[in-house]
Design a protein that fits this description.
This protein is of the alpha+beta class. The chain is built from 3 helices and 19 strands. Helices cover 29% and strands 36% of the residues. Strands 2, 4, 7, 9, 10, 11, 12, 13, 14, 15, 16, 17 and 18 form a 13-stranded antiparallel β-sheet that branches.
Amino acid sequence: MTARRSAASNSRRGVRRGLAAAALVLGGLASAALLRPSDPSASAEVAVVGRGTVEDTVTALGKIQPRAYVDVGAQVSGQLTRLHVAVGQMVREGDLLAEIDPALQQAKVEAGRAERARLTALLAEQRARADFAEAQLARQAALRRSGSGRGEAYDQARMEARIAAAQVEATQAQIRQTDSTLQADEAQLGYTRIYAPMSGTLIAVDARQGQTINSAYEAPVLMRIADLSTMTVWTQVSEADVTRLTDGMPIYFTTLGHPGRRWTARLHEILPAPPKPPAAGNGGSSASGGGGAANSVVLYTALFEIANDRGELRPDMTAQVFFVAAAAKDAVTVPVAALTLAALTPSDEAAERHRVTLIGSGGAIETREVRVGVRDRFNAQILEGLAEGERIVVSWKTDDGRPPKIGFRL
């Protein structure tokens, strides 16, 4: 019995020693965990300072149109008997495009020529009568001087001479009037053959062969010829951004049809006034100062030209235009969200200074002032204060959005 109690007592003492040893080990581990500092980067969205291109741009939408084009119309009425061209065809200045039935204009020209011939013959007859009347007047004047003639006969001869001269002048005036009418009729006859006024591409043909043309009130447009070698981009810029534009500033744009292609140009002109607003009663009230209906955005037109030697740009294409106000290439860049504006001072240089939060290699948090250059919507150029590769805090993931307190964690 005594031996059994002694063995049990020894067993309990061994268990207690083992539990004590385990408690010491766990206590040491807990102490080590409590002494390990927390990692700030775990509570932050971190970005690495890098390099890239930053552009401060004004964006707008534009329409691509030919720089030079002309609408070809008909100046006479009649049936379009021949159409010599089709859409997409290249034409040269002076090429015959279409013909209108010339029967009516030809008849007018023939009538005018016949009338002129009649008046020419009448003028010859009246000149002969005028010559005879002048001779009669000369004979009566001689008889009057000799005293053998009658005064009444002299007066009659003088009247007939004057009448004959007046008839000659009247017929000459009729001939001039007929010549003028004939010239107009011949021009109208020439208008029945329509020629290209410029070289270019036929981008639209609105008439059909056999169609009747009526030009009594306005010249109907038959087709449009455009020079597609140079295009003009008509860009609509809001009044909030137009003050940032300057003549000659660099531009680039893209199109939906060429998403990977970028065209470059320079601003040519800003029209002084926005497009004319719609008249009151035609869909809305007019806004003061022009530019559209009330409560709408006022848009100004900016123009620039672009070479189109390969014909990749087409009329009425939509262009996404970027006016480059400032740019920095191969610059040290950080996300704009990581910047906090520093306190402003009267110095211009201080107005460009911001603060950023850095995380060092050991997890230390540091606040540093930096000088910012060109900015876009997402990134900013760092002129001084940061080096490529440093880690900065973009935002904190804590509930209050503030840096976590430096402490210890398990």
